[in-house]
Design goal:
The chain is mainly alpha-helical and about 110 residues long. It is about 45% helix and about 5% strand. Helix 2 runs parallel beside helix 4 and helix 3 packs antiparallel against helix 4.
């Protein structure tokens, strides 16, 4: 997304289609901190060579972090049986911090270059 993040909401499960507008109703301009964390973890594990996309995702997570160190609680992050949404409150902190650590380990100083 334009803001550097990634997003999709739980409606894709019961619609059986990609949620084109992402976290529009529940996140930040279509992006979410949990979805961005997941995307960055996957891209880092795959050693994605689009460092600019990784850098923007990292910057998005850093901008969204609250002064207390947490990330904001957004929409539903877990779904089972296609229609039962769950809000895992730890996801908002676990996945962003894990993704930031993984990105620094994988890309190092390349994240600071522009």
């Amino acid at each position: 997304r334009e803001n550097g993040g990634w997003g999709e909401d739980f409606t894709s499960c019961y619609d059986k289609d990609y949620a084109v507008n992402g976290m529009k109703d529940y996140g930040d301009d279509g992006s979410g901190v949990v979805n961005t964390g997941w995307a960055l973890l996957a891209l880092s594990a795959a050693k994605c060579d689009d460092v600019e996309a990784i850098r923007k995702g990292v910057q998005y997570l850093m901008r969204r972090q609250l002064p207390c160190g947490d990330w904001p609680q957004e929409g539903i992050a877990g779904v089972f049986n296609r229609s039962c949404g769950i809000t895992y409150t730890a996801y908002r902190n676990v996945f962003p911090i894990w993704a930031l650590g993984r990105c620094v380990t994988t890309y190092g100083d390349a994240l600071n270059e522009e």
